[in-house]
Amino acid sequence: AEILTHHVIRLNQIVDYLKQHPLATSYEIAGGLTWSMRGRRWEDAPNRQKWFAVGETLAHISYLMEEGRIRRIEELVDGKMLRRYELTQKGYEM
Question: What residues contact 28, with CB distance under 8 A and at least 6 apart?
């Protein structure tokens, strides 16, 4: 029950973040979520910890995409693929 509650909270945080920040990257979304980082702000967290946080965020993003609540927008920027995310209509109903 505890892990299910965690996932519901995290999914809602991502949806809420995208309501305020449409077309955010996974890194930006992760930085806008609540993390237990021993009192550190996102900006002060070690890169390794950020890497794991973005990985967890991407797993939740994938779930929300499968549910049809968010979609990925891809664009080529300076020869690199940039992936941004936005809510679908179904995501706004969550």
Answer: 21
Place of tokens 């990985």: 55
Residue 39 has what pLDDT? 65
Whether 40 and 34 have beta carbons less than 8 Å apart is answered as no
CA-CA distance, 14 to 38, in Å (whole number)?
21
CA distance 45 to 59: 20
φ, ψ for residue 71 (rounded to 5)?
-135, 155
Tokens encoding 32: 């806008």
Q: What tens digit of pLDDT does each residue of 15-74 get?
A: 999 999 999 999 999 999 988 766 678 888 889 989 999 999 999 999 999 999 999 999
Q: CA quadruple 83, 46, 35, 59: dihedral positive or negative? A: positive
